[in-house]
Amino acid sequence: MTERPPLPPFTEETARRKVRAAEDAWNTRDPDVVALAYTEDCEWRNRDRFLHGRDEIRAFLREKWARELDYRLRKELWAWAGNRISVRFEYESRDRDGQWWRSYGNEQWEFADNGLMRRRYASINDVPISPSDRRIAR
């Protein structure tokens, strides 16, 4: 079984490391890299989409980053207990027409003993912004 430290139960320090590792992975915009953080049978809710397993996650992320160009993300630890972590996040991206967006949200994560995420539930809202309003640097 593959391990992905830090492993639960989380402390504040290990939860912060887990959040930073997730932020770094997502900012690669590489679906194959990001998908490795999840169990083979991971459950996701992303907005109004429900996904099951790494293959669906990979396909979703390919679709996402084909649509959300120049994507850049920040995550912040909100809470942790045992094998669970909650984060707040924001990301910026632009669409094919050049409109920039800032997306805000919260995620609830649950981890398997090996440190892979087995559940991810995300609620996300989008706000159009002008290029001059961007605040997440590359």
Automatic annotation (TrEMBL):
Q: What is this protein called?
A: DUF4440 domain-containing protein
Q: In terms of domain of life, where is this protein from?
A: Bacteria
**What organism does the UniProt record list as the source?**
Goodfellowiella coeruleoviolacea
Pfam family membership, one: DUF1348
The cross-references to InterPro entries, in alphabetical order and at most eight, read: DUF1348, NTF2-like_dom_sf
